[in-house]
Amino acid sequence: MTVTACVAYVAIGANLGEPVATVRAAIDALRAVEGTRFLSASSLYRTAPVGLHHQPDFINAVAALEVDAAALPAPSLLDRLFAIEADFGRVRTIRNAPRTLDLDLLLFGTECRDEPGLTLPHPRMTERAFVLAPLAELGPDLNIPGHGRIADLLAGVVGQRIERLS
Question: Among this protein's residues, is 114 annotated catalytic?
């Protein structure tokens, strides 16, 4: 029997409406994704917006899911994440705009791919404290394929404003 299970990490962010409640509800929605087993979620973090700076702060977290990669490959999981975003009223207009909910597939096991619509690892994850800090909470020893150890990557984003919420 071939084992096809892997751990997928999903970044969660929101800054419109009630972002703390939205991120918590999104974590609950991730618990129900068919073909996965919810493993854990990080603490919530308040972070400064990236790109368009004249918008509210974001609330961010990361969740870990165990996925049967044969039954639910990365593109299919990403489709499910987009469906959850749509359920929360997400409209994709301009990049880095305020949003009701943002779900990004960060890692899918050790898979590396670069194709239209899906790049793994997520192409900008190593540049963002709002991804690395909660990800490090879940996997302090993670090695990001093609980028290195998460502890080393965190040193590169120390100047970004991030606050862990209690």
Answer: no
